[in-house]
Design brief:
alpha/beta; about 25% strand
């Protein structure tokens, strides 16, 4: 109720002193949350990290999924992860718009997922944004970059080092910059084993 009233006020009176005060404090709080979530990524314990991610930062992650260490977030509460999924070390998840990750998804290390980007055609160099959807049984290799608005279809594979700029069809393998079709992947519907975890990562 109060949040909705503040949003309406700021929309109507953007230049008022109160609006500027609200913007400043919201930005300050958001930056502090991002800072704390980043520090959490360095804790060498899955149990502690997952507990903090879930209960303090609002990441929607079940106990049978894994986020390895040194993950960084922008708006962690926008991340939703399904069952038996794995996110590798040093990932960056920009969840200013939602990032939805399905079941049995294996994401490699140093992957970057963005939901906002600058609009190079905008006279003010503004931004455009859209959610990212990653469906079940997807395998994403190391150092992949996924841009806003992309939907990665069920069972698809993204080769390491690729930049994904558009939707990926189900059960296909893509790779390159920008990522392009390589081959069809057989339909293999497995359950990832997330019970064995590297203790200090």
């Amino acid at each position: 109720m109060i949040k909705a009233m503040l949003i309406n006020y700021v929309k109507k009176k953007r230049q008022s002193s109160l609006s500027r005060f609200i913007f400043f404090n919201y930005g300050l709080w958001n930056d502090f949350v991002v800072f704390l979530a980043t520090l959490t990524g360095f804790i060498p314990s899955h149990v502690i990290r997952q507990t903090l991610y879930r209960h303090i930062f609002g990441v929607k992650i079940p106990s049978n999924s894994i986020i390895y260490w040194k993950c960084r977030f922008y708006r962690p509460h926008g991340v939703k992860i399904g069952q038996n999924s794995i996110i590798g070390n040093d990932a960056f998840l920009d969840a200013r718009d939602p990032i939805n990750i399905g079941d049995n998804v294996n994401i490699g290390g140093e992957v970057r997922i963005f939901t906002w980007e600058h609009d190079i055609t905008s006279p003010s160099f503004g931004v455009k944004h859209s959610p990212v959807y990653i469906e079940n049984w997807v395998y994403i290799g190391n150092r992949v970059t996924i841009l806003p608005g992309v939907k990665i279809g069920e069972g698809s594979v993204i080769a390491s080092g690729s930049v994904v700029t558009k939707n990926v069809d189900p059960w296909t393998m893509v790779g390159g910059i920008p990522a392009k079709f390589i081959k069809i992947r057989p339909m293999v519907k497995y359950k990832l084993d997330t019970t064995h975890r590297t203790f200090f990562q």
